[in-house]
Amino acid sequence: QVQLVESGGGLVQAGGSLRLSCAASGRSFSSYFMGWFRQAPGKEREFVAAIRWSGSSTYYADSVKGRFTISRDNAKNTVYLQMNSLKPEDTAVYSCAASRGRADYSGNYKYLGNYDYWGQGTQVTVSS
Fold it and tell me: Tens of pLDDT along 62-104?
């Protein structure tokens, strides 16, 4: 069992930056494929970014590519999402998720159903 707790959300002006953290408890964190998702009011949850267990491969939604960076520190059981050049349309609740493997070997890391554990989320609000 893995528990995930996000932090780092808040209110920021457009063009600003935030760094989200997702702390994991439980064993074998370093073996999990990790993802970040977001859900804006009235919209479905969508994929933002993902990273393989080793950190050797990262994946991004087109809407955040070049602005967001996902990383992980397996020694600290933590995955990060550095968000730069934030836009009002980035406003959402951001959640991290852990996959025991399906998100990786299926190649479909954007599919919510391939993740086994989810955090509660942290609110990010970008003002114009």
Answer: 999 999 999 999 999 999 999 999 999 999 999 999 999 888 8
Two structure tokens written together for 108: 């479909």
Contact 72, 34 (CB under 8 A): yes
Cα diameter, the chain: 41
Question: Which residue is it, tokens 């702390």?
Answer: 23
Selection from 10, 52, 16 nearest residue 34 by Cα: 52
HEC states along the chain?
Answer: CCEEEEECCEEEECCCCEEEEEEEECCCHHHCEEEEEEECCCCCCEEEEEECCCCCCEEECCCCCCCEEEEEECCCCEEEEEECCCCHHHCEEEEEEEECCHHHHCCCCCCHHHCCEECCCEEEEEEC
Two tokens at 12? 């920021």
